[in-house]
Amino acid sequence: MSEEGDYGWGFVWGERCCFAEVVWDLEDSTQESPAQSVLFGAAYLGPFGHFFHMLLDKIFKGKKDKKTVAKRVLIEQIIASPLNNILFMLYYGAVVEGRPLNQVTSTLKKQYPSVQLIAWTFWPVVGWINHQYVPLQLRVIFHSLVAFGWGINVFLESASKVYDINQSLRQQRTSVALSSSLHGFVN
User: Fold this and answer.
1) Assign residue 47 a region: left if phi > 0, alpha if psi is -120 to 50, beta otherwise?
2) pLDDT at 75 > cutoff 80
3) pLDDT tens digit sequence for 83-110
């Protein structure tokens, strides 16, 4: 398994927002900077994924029968998934958004359960494919590529909400301005 490759794939994490902004022509849709995402991906996600997959392979001695793959996926979903989601939510709130830790933890308490439940509807399937069919040295890369697509989806979803809010505010300002000018014109 190539450590350098796994660490490098952490950089993919940061590029998803740039990709989405360019392809869908989104501007100012998020506060997230690619450098902040790259930092999280390269400093945590890549190395964690590398060592986690190596540990699972060592524990299960490289076996790929259905029972072993089910155990691997279960361990991944009980340990890695919650840990990754909690750390990302803390990092995003504190570092990317620059909010105080008490606000970040309050948001985490409110939003984490639904985030984790959504993750558990998608990532176990990815984990099964990854552990059953992907060679050990490519597992972090495969996971990162799927996460790239997943990240674009999440980014676009959050960006569309920001876009809808911004559009609504612009429409309200236009209505107020129009009504003010019409009110002055009528009187």
Assistant:
1) alpha
2) yes
3) 988 998 888 888 888 889 999 999 899 8
Residue type (1 letter), 178: L
- Cα→Cα distances 9→5, 62, 89, 147, 185, Å: 6, 23, 20, 10, 61
The residue ranges of DSSP E strands in the chain, in sequence order, are none
* 176 Cβ contact partners less than 8 Å away, ≥ 6 residues apart: none
* Residue appearing with tokens 């361990």: 75
Residue linked to tokens 């176990």: 124
Nearest alpha carbon to residue 78 among 147, 124, 141: 124
**Separation of first and last alpha carbons in the chain:** 77
Q: Considering only CA atoms, which of 31, 157, 96, 118 is closest in space to residue 87?
A: 96
* SS3 state at 99: coil
DSSP 114-147: HHHHHHHHHHHHHHHHHHHHS-GGGHHHHHHHHH
pTM passes above 0.90: no
Residue type, 34: P
Task: For residues 70 and 15, give the distance between their C-alpha atoms in angstroms, rounded to a whole number.
Answer: 31
Confidence check: pLDDT of 167 > 80: no
Q: How confident is the model at residue 187 (pLDDT cuts 50, 70, 90)?
A: very low
